[in-house]
Design brief:
mainly alpha, two-stranded antiparallel sheet, 3% strand, disordered C terminus
């Protein structure tokens, strides 16, 4: 405990820690705002123009929208993809264009010749695009099974070089969107009131924004703290101390984890207090914010700080920054299709909406497994870091040209 407190004092004196805190604060504040938007909790009324968007796994809806999009892009030989999050327009050569026609034919149960004939009619204005899509989609619904459809769309994605919304991974998130009905809007509202107790709905949004920024910023401090020991040759002195590698690394690791966690709790409390003022204690659960921070955000910090610790100890370099920046970029980009509640294997989970409570409830067990797996991963990485550090202290591995037997 004493060593951990000393490490905390050392971190608090480091300007990089306060710069990190400032950047995290500015990002969350700029996204979440100075206050909560209570209009998100307004009860839906009959005959409203719009009740928002919901996600469905209904294959009829997914098929119809996906095929319509694919036919439109095929007719102009211009396909939109987002490999690694970057926009890319793809134009297929004659060979690949024929392969795409075969995929569309297999999906729709329409011959290649018939598809090409309809495309010619569209181009000559004898039939419009919607008419062609309607004819082909009508035949497509019953032509093949759902699994065969997904497999063929996945092949279309591969033909485009990947990164399209036709892949099995993304097709439902892109083409399964539809407008909510009044009944569905009422059901979601009641879930936010009764299950989320208001607090949970806002806590998920807070964690969505906070998760993005804490998924990258703390790595700079984690690397700097360890790298500074090497640059200042303080590490040579630390190697000779009686304190065990286990105690030293855990103390420093927990010092960083606790300080960043305290800041997240303080900032979460700011919005939690606003919710209490707006809705009253009887309608909310004031502990939900802290539960979400613990389960949703702490595993991100745990992984980030363990990666910073491991890479710096193992390589004697700030390579952890590059490692985590790459991971962060791919994670955030891959999470965009499920931004309203996409729970994949990502470190940074997304739920960028007040509501969609049922989607969260349906995936709650998986979220716990996901978070638990990342905590376990962080522990394993930390244990490996301790082993490497201990080997360096014993002079069994190369360290800055010294301590090698």
């Amino acid at each position: 405990m004493r060593l951990m407190l000393l490490e905390m004092k050392r971190i608090l004196k480091n300007p990089l820690f306060w710069i990190s805190i400032a950047l995290i604060f500015v990002f969350i504040y700029s996204q979440f705002g100075s206050g909560i938007d209570i209009s998100d909790m307004d009860k839906p009324l009959p005959n409203q123009e719009n009740y928002g968007i919901t996600q469905t796994n209904n294959m009829s809806i997914i098929r119809e929208k996906a095929i319509a999009q694919l036919l439109q892009e095929y007719s102009f030989n211009s396909y939109t993809t987002y490999p690694y999050g970057f926009y890319r327009q793809v134009e297929l050569n004659d060979k690949k264009n024929l392969q795409m026609a075969k995929i569309i034919s297999a999906i729709s149960g329409t011959s290649i010749e018939e598809i090409q004939e309809k495309q010619k009619k569209q181009q000559s204005s004898l039939m419009n695009g919607e008419q062609i899509q309607h004819i082909i989609i009508a035949k497509a619904q019953d032509s093949i099974s759902a699994q065969e459809f997904l497999d063929l769309m996945d092949k279309a994605d591969e033909l485009l070089g990947g990164g399209s919304f036709y892949s099995k991974k993304l097709i439902a998130s892109q083409f399964g969107k539809r407008s909510k009905t009044y009944e569905e809007a009422i059901e979601d509202y009641e879930l936010m009131i009764n299950k989320d107790r208001v607090s949970g709905a806002y806590a998920r949004l807070f964690c969505d924004y906070a998760g993005i920024i804490i998924g990258i910023i703390p790595i700079f401090l984690a690397v700097a703290i360890w790298f500074k020991d090497q640059r200042s040759k303080c590490q040579d002195l630390l190697f000779t101390r009686k304190t065990s590698s286990l105690k030293f690394i855990i103390s420093r690791y927990l010092a960083m984890l606790i300080l960043f966690s305290i800041f997240l709790i303080v900032m979460g409390s700011y919005y939690n207090i606003q919710i209490i003022k707006e809705f009253g204690l009887s309608k909310i659960n004031p502990f939900y914010f802290y539960g979400y921070i613990l389960i949703w955000l702490i595993p991100i910090l745990a992984v980030l700080l363990s990666i910073g610790t491991f890479t710096t100890i193992a390589t004697n370099s700030p390579s952890g920054i590059l490692v985590m920046m790459t991971w962060w970029f791919l994670d955030v980009m891959n999470g965009l299709p499920g931004i309203k509640g996409g729970y994949g294997n990502s470190l940074i989970l997304r739920h960028n909406i007040v509501g969609n409570t049922q989607i969260y409830l349906n995936n709650r067990a998986f979220i716990f497994i996901n978070r638990g797996a990342y905590i376990l991963f962080a522990i394993v990485i930390l244990v490996i870091s301790m082993s490497i550090y201990n080997l360096k202290r014993e002079g069994k591995v190369f360290v800055r040209g010294i301590h090698k037997k």
